[in-house]
Amino acid sequence: MSVRTLPLLFLNLGGEMLYILDQRLRAQNIPGDKARKVLNDIISTMFNRKFMEELFKPQELYSKKALRTVYDRLAHASIMRLNQASMDKLYDLMTMAFKYQVLLCPRPKDVLLVTFNHLDAIKGFIQDSPTLLHQVDETFQQLTEIYGGFSAGEFQLIRQTLLIFFQDLHIRVSIFLKDKVQNSNGRFVLPVSGPLPWGTKVPGLIRTFNNKGEEVRKVEFKHGGSYVAAPKEGSFELYGDRVLKLGTNMYSVNRPVETHMSGASENLAAQTQESIAPNPLAKEELNLLARLIGGMEIKKPSGPEPGFRLNLFTTDEEEEQAALTRPEELFYEVINIQATQDQQTNEELARIMGEFEILDQPRRSASKGDDLLAMMDELQLC
Amino acid sequence: MFRRERSIPLRGSAAALCNNLSVLQLPVRNLTHFGVVHGPSAQLLSAAPEGVPLAQRQLQAKEGAGVSPPLITQVHWCVLPFRVLLVLTSHRGIQMYESDGSVMVYWHALDAGDASLVQAVFARGIAASGHFICVGMWSGQVLVFDIPAKGPNIVLSEELAGHQTPVTDIATEPAQGQDGVADVVTADDSGLLCVWQSGPEFKLLTRIPGFGVPCPSVQLWRGTIAAGYGNGQVRLYEASTGTLHVQIDAHARAICALDLAPELLSAAEDTFVHIWKLSRSPEGGYIEVEHCHGECVPDTQVCGARFCDPSGSSFAVTGYDLAEILRFSSM
User: Fold this and answer.
1) What is the CATH number of the domain that holds B237?
2) Does B169 reach chain A within 8 Å, measured CB to CB?
3) Does this model's pTM top 0.80?
4) How many domains does chain B have?
5) Domain span at residue B98?
6) What are phi and psi of B288, to 5 degrees?
């Protein structure tokens, strides 16, 4: 579909990830300076110039597996650690939140306002870091340069591409259920009232014209909803009132993040289709992934700073339980590539590895290509 | 008044595309065929009158180079004078099958060149006109294929230039035979409508400019063009002159599907399906529209809607993420 969707997908999912991590860091009483460092490290990795360059190239969307791998890496860009169950839950929440935002966008173009809402909030997390602020502002500018001139048709294609990516995901999120924006069957509520998209008139009028273009008749009809015209258009400037609330932070210390695993996923056939992707596809995707991740500059921890584990659940027991009872159809498979015999692939991986700095203890391995593959494997185990 | 009938289950949910439901009525065999796009596959199924599903088949988009499997953009039955073909458009090309989807009779690969590096490349918009099948392109071109009465000897007969932005939908009606009478309408992402007369060489009769919003769905019937727009409006034009006759503020979100048979059906992402009665006023001769019925499909972003019988007394609806075809019939 649209080849301009990845930046929007990545930035919005990243924004949701930061909202959730921020809430959990505070709920778990992590000291302020440590918490700030975690968020700073992640944001700095996200907005790294080389990474952004790769991200903004026109390209097809990655598979869900591949994208999940990117966020695994991103979440571990600092001293914070997440167990598999917590990482799964984090990813569930991120994806359902953005799916909700895309679906509820009044106009396809409003997905850009949602992105700007996320960026505005991200800037709020890094007020004390002028270099980082500048990086985010640069990304803002890039977004405006690329998407500012897009037509309504191009945004409609982006919207369709995003919705196809999120198709068949019906994980129930407590905060959505409580706010009555999601039904107990996992589907989002689509209200038939409220403000209209900018540029849409209130439904209910039929106007008839004659051959000279003069209006000859005006009739009203009952359209069934209860809409009002939009008060004003959201701002697409660097600073401004976005008007739209979608994409702003819905979590606070008092609103815990929980998910229910929707038991029987409705379209198992659709989901197994994804996980049995043939190997050639996986190889090419690994190349793209490696290029993208290669642009992430992960900082080594300075000094004897100890790491800590963040839990997305209220207790450790809950986290263990969640890992054991996760329905099979909701397993996220992180890319697990068998060591390929492909010489070209290994060379390319080796080149990218040279741009990497691995956080953990160095492994003793024969080739640099093996390091990357081993790292990918390790992500699956953590 | 319409009542909800028994739904027909789908193997896979419907994708968030426009015009995502094709219906082939076979009254002689007491059957109705339905076609819905899921994503990389499309599902065909046939049902008996009460909506009892009888047979189903899944078709895949033909593979090609690329990171992810190609996505289908539309599936549509084309009724020609001597045969019915099923056409599938995707990001790789155009696939044509016998009407039950059992045999592929023709494959046309998209010639993207370097375009695929910077923009989405796909075919979209399918309609039959006489013995031609017209298919739209991301580039704005419309390909015209000449279809023989039987067999796979399908030939690309013409490439129509009229649009600069991706084609969204194509509508046709049987040719009147007289010169200058429109029988094909093509629509695009900018809202532009091109009105043509089919033939060995298609002739562009008139253009109806857009107004900044896409026109995802268009219909043509008895010289009247019905166009649905991204801002929820439905507009009716005189096909021969391009004159605007009716403007309806019909929906609160983008329109995704229209059908015309003889009533007008409009469906949009606002969860509503509306039915309108069209008539010609006795004086003036211009088109009049009356709202007949509105149906809300709760919490469903509708993506396809079609009448299921020639009198318009029943219709079917598909929605994003919904793994069933909803059916309604008048009481």
Assistant:
1) 2.130.10.10
2) no
3) yes
4) 1
5) 2-112+120-330
6) -120, 145
